[in-house]
Specification:
Blueprint lengths: L2 H33 L6 H6 L3 H34 L2 H16 L2 H12 L4 H8 L13 H25 L3 H9 L4 H12 L1 H16 L3 H7 L6 H11 L3 H26 L1 H5 L1
């Protein structure tokens, strides 16, 4: 009987902190969305009917899906070399995973801008080699945004994948090889299906992170590939409409919550059915 009060004493400060830093601000945003500039659901009607806002939602979805795909594929390769590679490969992959966390997001975004811009390093090399006659447009569009976001999010995809790969039952792989299956068949038909939970977890983490990206799309998109987070910023600071910005924020948070619930249900069907 005494364990329950002790648990509340231990968890109480944490729950209070989460409530003050997450729940209270979210409730405040919800209140703004139905009270500013006047009471009602008019801002939500605008958010789901305005062609400009809908185009931003679709662009955000398209970019996030592409970033999720490339990040999970890249993260899978990195994780495979990190977990099952040789000593040198493991060391190199560890550096590739850890070093990005030591460099700020803003610095990396400007680095990609210097590399991919019309007068950047990559276009300069290609022109000097005679591969192209005119600079390729690789920034201020969706391509640059996807490259920058993928580069940032690959390390976040690695950790769920690494957990899944470390928890593999090696006896299953040995049994498959003992039955005459080649390396490619073992990988595609045994190894990869056994890491499906890690793939789903990585996709969830990357997609949720990507939905709220602001700095990288703003710099590499150059105002031409506006995503939801940048749109909210514009409605707060440049074209003030706090009620509409709040309504878009609430919609974004509800979408994230729904995706998390859906993917958790898919990843753990037994628990969902109990």
């Amino acid at each position: 009987m005494n364990r329950l009060p002790r648990a509340f004493l231990l968890l109480g400060p944490l729950l209070l902190f989460l409530g003050l830093t997450y729940i209270v601000p979210f409730l405040g945003i919800m209140r703004w969305s139905v009270t500013m500039p006047e009471p009602g659901l008019g801002q939500y009607a605008t958010a789901i009917s305005d062609p400009l806002i809908l185009s931003v939602f679709l662009r955000t979805l398209r970019i996030c899906l592409a970033v999720t795909l490339f990040s999970v594929v890249g993260g899978y390769i990195v994780t495979l070399l990190w977990i099952r590679g040789g000593p040198v490969q493991r060391l190199v992959m560890e550096m590739c995973i850890l070093i990005p966390f030591w460099i700020s997001l803003l610095t990396r975004a400007f680095g990609w801008l210097a590399l991919l811009s019309n007068r950047g390093i990559l276009n300069g090399w290609l022109e000097s080699l005679g591969v192209i006659s005119e600079p390729l447009t690789m920034v201020r569009n969706e391509f640059g945004v996807i490259v920058g976001m993928t580069h940032f999010l690959i390390p976040f995809a690695v950790f769920p994948l690494a957990t899944a790969m470390r928890n593999l039952d090696e006896r299953v792989l040995l049994a498959a090889r003992g039955m005459g299956a080649g390396r490619a068949r073992v990988f595609w038909q045994v190894f990869m299906p056994m890491t499906a939970s890690g793939i789903l977890g990585a996709a969830l983490v990357v997609f949720v992170f990507a939905l709220g990206f602001f700095v990288t799309p703003a710099i590499l998109g150059g105002g031409r590939s506006v995503m939801v987070a940048e749109l909210i910023y514009l409605y707060i600071f440049q074209n003030p409409n706090w009620g509409l910005a709040a309504a878009i924020s609430v919609i974004l948070m509800l979408v994230v919550g729904g995706l998390m619930a859906l993917l958790m249900r898919v990843a753990n069907p037994k628990g969902a059915g109990q």
